[in-house]
Amino acid sequence: MIFEDLPTTPTSEELIDKAFSRAARAGKAKGGLEAQQSMLQTAANIISDNLENVVTAWPDFDYEDDVHPFYYELADAIVDVDELRQALSETMWASRKAREIHNEYQPRLRKTDIDTARKHRKQAFARLADIVEQIDDELLYINKSRNDLRDLPEINPEEPTIVVAGYPNVGKSSFVNDVTSARGETASYPFTTKGIGVGHFEHEHIRHQIVDTPGLLDRPPAERNEIESQAVSAIEHLADCMLVMVDPSAECGYPLASQLELRDSIAAQFETVPVLTIANKVDRAEAWDDSQIDALNADYEMSVETGENVETVLEAAVEAIDFEPELPFDG
Ligand SMILES: Nc1nc2c(ncn2[C@@H]2O[C@H](COP(=O)(O)OP(=O)(O)OP(=O)(O)O)[C@@H](O)[C@H]2O)c(=O)[nH]1
């Protein structure tokens, strides 16, 4: 996951302490003017390099190759990506500024007396510290963003992906568990308390991803808060096929009419994605709500419990994706 290995960002105080204590050590190893030069060189390098490393550790949000729209939107649900980008660019500015201060003062530490050199070196240090303090809030925001984003789910937006939606207890996780080998349950995120379920299966030697999103696609859009709505938008960039699962027996605890409304709203929101309606628990067909069955107009009836039509549904989902792997360029 692209935000997984970001290093911690130092605070401005930590960075200043580090730069000046290393500088003091470097100065002790030398004498006279050389000591002053070495101190300035060390302090400026540490500040400039550390700040540059903070920025380059992040992927470039401008390039879709670096940050897939799925992750961009998901990140934006959790942190303010514009603010983060602004903080990163100000950090880069500070890095360059430290280099400039070094270049401005280094000549003044040559061919002069030691007191003047020391005075200039101290001036340079004060300006370096000032630059770093100016980006205090930015460094804090970058570190907060790093902490908030590092636990995003391990989802590969490049893989053909089936997203499963539907009210709680209709059989989504049973289905995902049934068709995938190992199910990787992930931690909780600000947009779902239950953790996104991600599973994988192979179809004709192509790895497919199947994603269950409790807390997001299991209730009416009106009940989603802002973060959840944004996470749903992110899923629009992820889903290659949407399976809306319904339980016409309503044993899940939700009337079929409500489930139908959810299906319709998902179909409307995911208009560029094939949406299949799957009526689950056909083994309980005697309990199905006949009054809504025609309106439901399910594409498939299945039972995860008995296994009836489970493979058929999976095949249909894969067919609907119509995934063509990128072929190597052959001239
Ligand atoms: N009779 C019958 N029960 C089923 C079927 N599929 C799932 N169930 C049962 O329905 C209940 C809910 O299934 P889950 O897979 O946990 O449903 P879910 O939609 O993932 O629910 P959440 O995890 O709350 O979102 C469980 O007790 C399942 O055993 C089915 O085809 N027939």
TrEMBL record:
Keywords for this protein: GTP-binding, Nucleotide-binding
Keyword check for Magnesium: no
Domain NOG1 N-terminal helical: 3-155
Keyword Transcription: no
Lineage of source species: Archaea, Methanobacteriati, Methanobacteriota, Stenosarchaea group, Halobacteria
Gene source species: Natrialba magadii (strain ATCC 43099 / DSM 3394 / CCM 3739 / CIP 104546 / IAM 13178 / JCM 8861 / NBRC 102185 / NCIMB 2190 / MS3) (Natronobacterium magadii)
GO molecular function: GTP binding
Boundaries of every Nucleolar GTP-binding protein 1 Rossman-fold domain copy: 226-283
Name by which UniProt lists this protein: GTP-binding protein
UniProt xrefs under SUPFAM superfamilies: P-loop containing nucleoside triphosphate hydrolases
Top-rank lineage group of the source organism: Archaea
